Amino acid sequence: MDWAFILVIILSIFLALFLILGIVLVVLLIRVTLQIKEVTKSAQNTASAIESMVAGASRFSSPMLVGKMLFKQAQKFKKRKGDKDEG
Fold first, then answer.
1. CA neighbours within 13 Å on the CB side: how many for 28?
2. What is the largest CA-CA distance in the chain?
3. CA distances for 74 relative to 33, 40, 56, 65, 81, angstroms
4. Fewest Cβ atoms nearer than 10 Å: which of 3, 17, 21, 29?
5. Helix or strand run (H / E) with residue 6
6. CA nearest neighbour of 54 among 66, 64, 62
7. Is pLDDT at 56 greater than 80 in this prediction?
8. How many Å separate Cα 52 from the centre of its chain?
9. pLDDT in tens, 5-40
10. Vertex 28, ends 15 and 14: CA angle to 5°?
11. Dist CA 45 CA 20 (whole Å)
């Protein structure tokens, strides 16, 4: 009978340890989940800011690219016209 009581005491001690360990792990898991949520919000804000910057840059660079292409074509046209006049 003494062995049965010792076994019950040992099992109850292990049960209490695992219960405390489980509670600690759940609390840590909740903290990590909250941190992940904050990081996700920050990444989303950063991505939207970059997206708006790229949209602004594309609005600014499109007219510049068209102007640059027209300028190059005008230079090529002048060179061809100059070659015809000399020949």
1. 6
2. 122
3. 60, 50, 28, 14, 10
4. 3
5. helix 2-86
6. 62
7. no
8. 15
9. 999 999 999 999 999 999 999 999 999 999 999 999
10. 10
11. 38
Q: How far apart are CA 72 and CA 29, in angstroms?
A: 61
- 12: which 2 tokens? 């109850």
| Integer Cα distance of 81 and 77 in angstroms | 6
Instruction: Name the band, by pLDDT with cuts 50, 70 and 90, for residue 68.
Output: confident
Residue 16: both structure tokens together: 């209490």
What pLDDT, on a 0 to 100 scale, did the predictor assign at position 10? 96
